[in-house]
Task: inverse folding
């Protein structure tokens, strides 16, 4: 059901029935949060409005809602916490004064969530739409559809943003639900402290009361047996009670070294989604969104140029926008394509260029074979695959022509190279291990 | 509706509620006071939808009923009446008749049915605190709150409970005031953020109350009840900055001055202060001098040497006059200890021998 449209039509009806003064005072900033079994939950800006709507307009609201949808039989009102945060202009009382170095506290102490991470600010592109869809499914029925939800991807691809947005959204949708976010490191620290002070029972209780538990950067648990054991028991308790658990990591659970098998299999029980690096189209969307949120006006050609020439992760893109904001303020004008060009030339990490020899070295090290064997005419199975992977990477990531790849790798024919690239392309789709290997090699190359 | 009561009492109750009622272009009825008979009392309510207050006056109820009258008019009328003892208020059609032995006034009413209900906060874990402590605490810090800020948590006063102390704090990020008051144990209370405008109203309304206030907190609202007043305020949903981190731990130079002396010298300095309210302070422990200098290119300049005890390094520093003087009213002792940490570092002011109040202010970095 489209809540905003439903509520809009109810408002239109109510507007006709009540005076303008009453309408603007009492119905401004109201909206439908959700509907559960015919009960509409209405968000109102403050307790005055709640009291007034309950006492004076409850019947009118319910009647109009029923006219739209006969299944609705009740309305509940909740006070919205966010809408009380209205923004005003900053006063200039402190002209010429430095501010007190107050720490920026925006993290909510009760749930550790940073309210800045929401779905409104989450840019969806082809690269992360699967992860986004999985997150949405988790929000719809927490603890049931995908439990646990495991999100992995390289740094700066938006893992933390996504999982925190799930937490923040769940909190607004279900004010009663206890959501908690933490990093694995924090969990480890807590566990250590509890062990030292012999307060394990308190520690166990603390984490078991949450309805949605979000644990970031789970790869820190690699080789930490005690933490893994605690996590295992915690996981089981939460899972058995249908509590939602969300994990993030920089790699697939199967590839986290030193992870116990029982944990690994439990991670795999739910949904495992990958957030790959943003593609160019998504980078355009991300750059425009970030520029807009910073109040920076970037012409389309500049955005396209930046998206094309910058390869990095989302955090890098954010950095670029921040720098451009300052530049535009200093120069007192909009950023032009020339500015962008010189910026990219001077600052940004150039598009990767790497010697073929280095790639050969990294890949042959990865597969533990002799570097020289790649160039030889051998057809041993353990050499063929790495060689094909090298050709594939050279072609896909570095755009080197087929003939020159062949020539550099021991004077092979360009058709051999084409065949190898095609073969890896097909195999990646069918063989998850190969695709994971290639991702890992790509990470190695990026360093 | 018809009641008779003591004018003085009514005037006081109306005075408390009147300030809250105000102009609201969308809902004109908010400029009114809602009067209603309840048993042997007349209940008076006012709200601006951010803050709601309900007071009551004991009265002889002759006929039950309700009415909404413009707050300003009623308040002005009551204040202007000669020293009459009793007053009678009655609703006659669309007007309210206010009569004493010698005068009679008719006030047009506002529509009763539009007047908002003041929400009742039901909190199972309510608690109580002395009204005097709340008022003193709020008054000691409220001026330091941001006057309209991007950050709602800075335009509010933080009231927190920490181990038998109520801690009041406010900051606009240029200065910070903190007041600690010892209280009896208050269970179930962590902290609330009260918008500074509401805090100022609370100071006014509860100033004359001696009893304990019972406090309930729920859904971004807090209710305070005591001394015949029921007040509900919005609270800010946010986290107050962890300011304890920025309290300077060391001091490079220190000046101890008499509060009265400092206040007088600052008054003089104000005459010559410039558009930025800048004061130039110079400390030279060797010469035992504490000088305050203000300069205004279009008026002139002034230097005031204060008798002071000075320790530490020589220092020349600029401060904002207003930020500097604001805190004097909250310092209970006669002598003030001013602690400096060098250029561009926060300055701490506190009363000598008084640990309950602390004020931190940033210097100005204009040359």
Result:
């Amino acid at each position: 059901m489209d809540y905003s449209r439903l509520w809009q039509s109810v408002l239109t009806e109510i507007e006709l029935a009540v005076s303008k003064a009453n309408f603007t005072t009492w119905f401004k900033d109201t909206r439908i949060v959700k509907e559960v079994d015919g009960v509409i939950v209405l968000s109102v800006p403050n307790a005055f409005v709640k009291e007034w709507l309950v006492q004076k307009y409850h019947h009118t609201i319910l009647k109009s809602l029923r006219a739209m949808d006969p299944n609705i039989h009740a309305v509940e009102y909740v006070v919205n916490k966010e809408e009380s945060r209205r923004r005003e202009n900053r006063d200039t009382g402190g002209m010429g004064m430095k501010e007190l170095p107050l720490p920026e506290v925006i993290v909510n102490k009760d749930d550790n969530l940073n309210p800045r991470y929401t779905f409104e600010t989450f840019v969806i592109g082809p690269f992360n739409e699967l992860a986004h869809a999985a997150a949405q499914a988790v929000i719809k029925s927490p603890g049931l559809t995908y439990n646990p939800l495991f999100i992995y991807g390289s740094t700066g691809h938006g893992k933390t943003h996504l999982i925190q947005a799930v937490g923040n959204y769940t909190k607004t949708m279900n004010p009663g639900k206890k959501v908690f976010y933490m990093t694995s490191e924090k969990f480890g620290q807590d566990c250590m402290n509890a062990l030292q002070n012999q307060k394990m029972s308190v520690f166990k209780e603390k984490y078991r009361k949450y309805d949605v538990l979000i644990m970031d950067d789970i790869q820190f648990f690699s080789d930490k047996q005690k933490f893994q054991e605690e996590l295992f028991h915690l996981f089981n308790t939460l899972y058995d009670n249908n509590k939602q658990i969300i994990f993030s990591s920089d790699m697939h659970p199967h590839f986290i070294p030193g992870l116990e098998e029982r944990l690994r299999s439990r991670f795999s029980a739910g949904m495992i989604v990958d957030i790959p690096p943003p593609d160019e189209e998504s980078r355009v969307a991300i750059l425009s969104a970030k520029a807009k949120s910073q109040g920076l006006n970037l012409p389309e050609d500049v955005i396209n140029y930046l998206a094309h020439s910058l390869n990095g992760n989302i955090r890098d893109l954010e950095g670029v926008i921040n720098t451009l904001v300052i530049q535009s303020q200093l120069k007192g004008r909009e950023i032009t394509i020339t500015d962008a060009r010189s910026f990219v030339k001077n600052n940004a990490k150039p598009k990767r260029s790497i010697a073929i020899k280095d790639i050969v070295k990294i890949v042959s090290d990865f597969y533990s074979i002799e570097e020289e064997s790649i160039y030889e005419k051998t057809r041993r199975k353990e050499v063929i695959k790495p060689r094909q992977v090298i050709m594939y990477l050279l072609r896909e990531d570095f755009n080197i022509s087929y003939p020159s790849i062949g020539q550099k790798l021991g004077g092979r024919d360009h058709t051999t190279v084409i065949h190898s690239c095609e073969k890896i392309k097909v195999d990646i789709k069918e063989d998850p291990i190969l695709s994971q290997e290639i991702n890992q090699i790509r990470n190695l190359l990026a360093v | 509706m018809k009641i008779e009561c003591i004018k003085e009492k009514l005037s006081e109750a109306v005075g408390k509620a009147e300030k809250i009622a105000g102009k609201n272009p969308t809902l004109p009825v908010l400029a009114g006071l809602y009067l209603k008979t309840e048993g042997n009392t007349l209940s008076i309510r006012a709200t601006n939808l951010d803050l709601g207050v309900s007071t009551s006056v004991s009265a002889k109820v002759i006929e039950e009923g309700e009415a909404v009258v413009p707050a300003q008019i009623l308040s002005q009328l009551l204040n202007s009446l000669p020293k009459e003892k009793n007053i009678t208020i009655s609703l006659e059609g669309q007007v309210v008749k206010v009569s004493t032995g010698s005068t009679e006034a008719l006030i047009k009413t506002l529509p009763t049915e539009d007047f908002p209900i003041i929400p009742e906060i039901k909190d199972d874990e309510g608690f109580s605190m002395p009204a005097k402590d709340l008022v003193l605490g709020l008054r000691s810090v409220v001026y330091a709150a941001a006057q309209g800020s991007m950050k709602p948590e800075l335009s509010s006063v933080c009231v927190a409970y920490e181990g038998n102390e109520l801690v009041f704090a406010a900051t606009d990020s240029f200065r910070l005031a903190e007041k600690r008051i010892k209280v009896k144990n208050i269970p179930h209370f962590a902290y609330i953020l009260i918008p500074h405008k509401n805090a100022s109203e609370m100071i006014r309304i509860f100033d004359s109350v001696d009893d304990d206030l019972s406090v309930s907190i729920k859904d971004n609202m807090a209710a305070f009840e005591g001394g015949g007043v029921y007040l509900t305020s919005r609270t800010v949903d946010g986290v107050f900055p962890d300011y304890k981190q920025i309290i300077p731990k060391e001091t490079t130079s220190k000046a101890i001055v008499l509060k009265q002396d400092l206040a007088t010298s600052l008054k003089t300095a104000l005459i010559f202060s410039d558009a930025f309210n800048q004061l130039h302070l110079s400390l030279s422990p060797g010469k035992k001098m504490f000088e305050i200098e203000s300069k205004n290119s279009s008026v002139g300049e002034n230097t005031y040497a204060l008798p002071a005890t000075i320790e530490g390094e020589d220092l020349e520093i600029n401060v904002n006059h207003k930020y500097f003087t604001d805190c004097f009213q909250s310092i209970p002792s006669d002598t003030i200890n001013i602690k400096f940490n060098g250029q561009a570092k926060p300055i701490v002011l506190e009363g000598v021998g008084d640990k309950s109040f602390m004020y931190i202010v940033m210097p100005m970095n204009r040359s």
Q: What stands out?
A: The interface with chain B takes residues 19-22, 24-25, 46-52, 55, 78-79, 81-82, 84-91, 93-109 of chain A (CB under 8 Å). Chain A has four domains: 3-81, 129-275, 280-346, 356-446. The longest strand of chain A covers residues 31-36.
